TrEMBL record:
<dbReference type="GO" id="GO:0007059">
    <property type="term" value="P:chromosome segregation"/>
</dbReference>
<dbReference type="GO" id="GO:0004674">
    <property type="term" value="F:protein serine/threonine kinase activity"/>
</dbReference>
<dbReference type="GO" id="GO:0034501">
    <property type="term" value="P:protein localization to kinetochore"/>
</dbReference>
<feature type="binding site">
    <location>
        <position position="48"/>
    </location>
    <ligand>
        <name>ATP</name>
    </ligand>
</feature>
<comment type="similarity">
    <text>Belongs to the protein kinase superfamily.</text>
</comment>
<dbReference type="GO" id="GO:0005634">
    <property type="term" value="C:nucleus"/>
</dbReference>
<dbReference type="GO" id="GO:0007094">
    <property type="term" value="P:mitotic spindle assembly checkpoint signaling"/>
</dbReference>
<protein>
    <recommendedName>
        <fullName>Protein kinase domain-containing protein</fullName>
    </recommendedName>
</protein>
<dbReference type="InterPro" id="IPR017441">
    <property type="entry name" value="Protein_kinase_ATP_BS"/>
</dbReference>
<dbReference type="InterPro" id="IPR000719">
    <property type="entry name" value="Prot_kinase_dom"/>
</dbReference>
<dbReference type="Pfam" id="PF00069">
    <property type="entry name" value="Pkinase"/>
</dbReference>
<dbReference type="InterPro" id="IPR008271">
    <property type="entry name" value="Ser/Thr_kinase_AS"/>
</dbReference>
<keyword id="KW-0723">Serine/threonine-protein kinase</keyword>
<keyword id="KW-0547">Nucleotide-binding</keyword>
<feature type="domain" description="Protein kinase">
    <location>
        <begin position="20"/>
        <end position="282"/>
    </location>
</feature>
<dbReference type="GO" id="GO:0000776">
    <property type="term" value="C:kinetochore"/>
</dbReference>
<dbReference type="InterPro" id="IPR011009">
    <property type="entry name" value="Kinase-like_dom_sf"/>
</dbReference>
Length: 288
């Protein structure tokens, strides 16, 4: 078994008695890196690796430990929601090498890559709705799954706080959310020490401030920002429904309506989950 230190391909780690060989890095963030891995039986999985040594990251050790514990707690809470939440296989903290691991199901494609492919297909099509980044039908199909994801989070009292294209993956036709490292309980109440963080501009403004409580309305902002990405192929850098510079505003009145409602800096002015669930864009065939 590999010791702590620099993580490289072909290193092997034991997680709850089973060896996983890291093959290639899929991504990394503030709290850890994610790797394609293979078990001794030849099965593939995604393994998230947390370096919990004192010199392992610029992020404070207690924050990295909390991220590991928090992700396990949230994934275990929603372990039966296999259609919308990534499935966790197992996890382990190894104090001898100061590393922790979470083994999960391995995705087929990221939302980012799927949207790039859909964009190329859209450009080749003979359809007349080539004003937006992907077709209206493809956008709506993804949007409906996004709404189902935040309805699931809300049902379990989870605020993700970092919903973004990089944290949404396709497993066959199913879109699932990953990375619950900074997620929080919806009903914990407000305190001045609330967890702060996320990814601008996909995370809501209040995630970066200790002046406004972080509630489930934070995820409402995020799905609006993701819909913006699906529509324009770019991040909402102005944190409004305004189209990117040099890009025409979408002709979809339904998309405009959602963007204008969700991308409100004041959380109290954003709609609730049921408003999104009952919106015509969420209920086929409401495309325009």
């Amino acid at each position: 078994m590999s010791s702590g230190g620099i993580i490289r391909p072909n290193q092997r780690y034991r997680i709850q008695g089973e060896f996983y060989t890291l093959l290639s890095r899929l991504g990394y963030g503030s709290f850890g890196s994610v790797w394609t891995s293979r078990t001794e039986n030849g099965d593939f999985a995604a393994v998230k690796v947390f370096d919990l040594s004192r010199s392992g990251s610029r992020i404070r050790l207690n924050e990295r430990q909390n991220s590991f514990r928090n992700e396990i707690k949230m994934l275990d809470r929603m372990r039966n929601e296999t259609e919308h939440i990534v499935t966790m296989y197992t996890f382990e903290y190894n104090p001898r090498i100061s590393m922790a691991f979470i083994a999960m199901e391995l995705a087929d494609e990221s939302l980012i890559d799927r949207v790039k492919n859909l964009h190329q297909r859209h450009l080749r099509s003979r359809m007349l709705d080539r004003f937006d980044f992907i077709s209206a039908n493809d956008r709506q199909n993804i949007w409906i799954q996004l709404v189902n994801i935040i309805l699931t989070l809300h049902r379990y009292g989870v605020v993700h706080c970092d919903l973004k294209p990089a944290n949404l993956l396709f497993f066959g036709p199913l879109l699932k959310v990953i990375d619950f490292g900074i997620a929080q309980d919806e009903f914990t109440g407000y305190n001045r020490r609330q967890r702060i963080g996320g990814t601008r501009p996909y995370s809501a403004p209040e995630c970066f401030s200790d002046r406004t409580p972080v509630t489930s309305k934070a995820d409402i902002w995020s799905v609006g920002a993701i819909l913006y990405f699906l529509t324009y192929g770019k991040r909402p850098i102005y944190e409004t429904a305004q189209a990117p510079d040099g890009v025409s505003q979408t002709r979809s009145r339904l998309v405009q309506d959602i963007l204008q409602h969700c991308l409100q800096r004041n959380p109290s002015r954003r709609p609730d989950h049921q408003w999104l669930a009952q919106h015509p864009l969420t209920i086929p065939p409401g495309i325009f």
